[in-house]
Every structure is written in structure tokens, then in C-alpha cells.
Amino acid sequence: MQRTHKDTLFRFIFRDKKNLLQLYNALNGSDHQDENSLLLTTLENVIYLGYKNDVSFLLDCTLFLAEHQTTVNPNMPLRGVLYFARLYQDFIVQREWDLYSSSLIPLPCPQYVVFYNGTASQPERQILSLSDAFRKMSPDGEIPFPPALECKALVLNINYGQNRALMEKCRPLWEYSYFIHNIREKLKAGYAPEKAVDLAVTHCLQEGILKDLLKKHRKEVVGMFLEEYDRELHEKTLRQEGWAEGLSTGRKEWRELTRLLLEDGRLDDLRRSTKDTKFEQQLMKEYNIE
Q1: pTM
Q2: 138-190: pLDDT as tens digits
Q3: How many whole angstroms separate alpha carbon 155 and alpha carbon 123?
Q4: Average pLDDT of the segment spanning 35-51
Q5: Between the CA of residue 130 and those of 76, 82, 108, 153, 288, what are the distances in Å?
Q6: Are the C-beta atoms of 107 and 88 separated by less than 8 Å?
Q7: What are all long-range contacts of 132-136, with beta carbons under 8 Å and residues at least 24 apart?
Q8: CB 19: neighbour CB atoms within 10 A?
Q9: Where does the chain show beta strands of DSSP type E?
Q10: Which residues lie below 8 Å from residue 154, measured CB to CB, with a gap of 6+?
Q11: In angstroms, rounded to a whole number, what is the distance separating the alpha carbons of residues 65 and 201?
């Protein structure tokens, strides 16, 4: 199978309409059986760091968007509203509806779910809202009028052992969660990534977990996980380097400010700056420390 950009393993599994319908039913307590009633609307040219990690479809009156994340990202509602805007645009254009019509255009109701299985500790379930990002304009920190735009993302932790009720209703999701957990356990045991994945694949095949997928696409699944693992490791390294660089720079600035304040005999200001960040910044500006 040729892919212009890399799929995540999650997306690879849930591109299958049967699995996707089972996931939708598990989330909504529904019992849809006809896979053909599910119309895929995934935007194939939407890429995140070189990866496709999204799946969207239209079912009855619902426009469903799912994204998979291995990192904590508070900006998912913003990603969602931009994605939904394109989906709705396509929806209207395909039906040749007129935005200037005097009749109300009937739209499917959006549902946005983010599936998280990174290693950072996160709650089983949380709601992220676009409005949380809006800058507060009033002195009391409140938005003085109702925001004209909102997008809510339901973030579900799908690490092994989390959201058990959901896992029980959606076998493919549980199998995916178990497979990733098994790989991570072998990594913790000291196995190299390639060996850890190979052992996990063998174990899952023996246990009948993701059996059809692993039998048909074993090499591709191994490759996808290793690509994701390398990407996560790279991102983690960049974050650590950025934090270390920022910490180092901050220490240099603080040492310089301390030296200058001591030279000028401003001990009270030095003490105050250790407790008052705003005052510290004023002193930095006063001494032209950048």
C-alpha cells in the first residue's frame, strides 16, 4: 500500500468502516449496523507533522471528527473549528446549496472526539473549549459578551486500563490499546524498539488481538509504530532542549540582574524581585537585560 504521507496506526485501524461504526456506536450508545450508511469525509490533505491522524464521516444527522494524539495539545478545539469549517464548506458545495438563500440550510450536528494515548498522565475524560483560548478583555477576567464562536473537543484517554466501559463496547479500540501497552511494557523491559514491536506483534497474534490486521499488514504496522515512536522521541527531545535552553538563558539573566542590583546597593529591590515577577521584569527592562 502506497501512502504519500504516513498514517498513524490508530487511523489505519479506524479507516475500516466496520471498526469506525463500532467506535461510533460505543461512543453514542447507538446500534447502527449498515456500514454503507457511513460516508467518509476525511480531508486527505490535512497533515499534522507529516502524519494523517484524523478520521471524519457523515452518518444520519451527525458530522463526526476523530483525531488521535500522543501529546497533550490544548489547541485541539482550534484545530477542530478549522477542520469543521472545511467539512461544512464541502458539504454545502457538494449539494450546490446557496448561502444567500432565504431558506435555512440544514446542517449535520458536529461531534468532535480526540483519542489520547500518550505517556503523560491525563484524566480519563475532559472537555476542551475554544472559548478557553479567547483573551479576556474585562478587568475581572471575563468575556463581556457571549463569544460568537465555540468548538468543544471531547478528549478521551485510551491508554490501557482507562475508559473501561468504552473499551468493552468497542473491541478494536481495546485491542489497539492493549497492543500499544504491550509494546511499551517491552520497551520498559529494555528491548530495542524493533524487537519490542516484533515481540508484541507475535504475542498479539497468538492471543487473537488485531489478528487480521497483523497477519495481513505485519510489516506495515511495525513500520508505522516505529515511525510514530521516532517522531515522539524527536518531539520530546526538542521540548527538553527548548526547556533547558530557556532555563539556561533565564539563569544568566537573573545572575546579571542580581550582580547589578548588588553593585547599586539595591538589596530591598533584589528581595522584592524574588517574589514579584512583574517587578523583576521591570528591573530587567531598567537595566536593559535581554
Answers
A1: 0.76
A2: 667 677 788 899 999 999 999 999 999 999 999 999 999 999 999 999 999 99
A3: 9
A4: 72
A5: 8, 11, 20, 8, 37
A6: yes
A7: 132/74, 132/77, 133/74, 133/75, 133/77, 133/78
A8: 20
A9: 6-7, 39-40, 51-52, 54-59, 62-69, 109-116, 125-129, 152-157
A10: 112, 113, 114, 125, 126, 127
A11: 29
What's the pLDDT at 4? 42
Total residues found in the chain within this entry: 290
Average pLDDT over residues 92-115: 95
> Per the structure block, which three cell numbers stand in for 18?
466496520
**Amino acid residing at 208:** G
- Residue in the structure block whose three cell numbers are 506495515: 220
Separation CA 276–CA 167 (nearest Å) = 48
Which amino acid is it at 272? R
Instruction: Report the phi/psi class of residue 2: left, alpha or beta, with left for phi > 0 and alpha for psi in -120 to 50.
Output: beta
Q: In whole angstroms, how large is the CA radius of gyration of the chain? A: 25
Which residue(s) pair with 114 in the sheet?
67, 155
The SS3 of residue 257 is helix
* Site of grid cell 492493549: 178
Name residues whose C-beta falls within 8 Å of residue 286's C-beta, 6 or more positions apart in sequence.
none
Q: Which residues, at least 6 apart from 211, have a Cβ–Cβ distance to it below 8 Å?
A: 204, 205
Which DSSP symbol is given to 140? T
CA distance 69 to 156: 10
CA 151 to chain centre: 15
The larger pLDDT score, comparing residue 142 to residue 246, is at 142
Report how far residue 281's alpha carbon sits from residue 290's, in angstroms, rounded to the nearest whole number.
10
Cβ 160 vs Cβ 178: under 8 Å:
yes
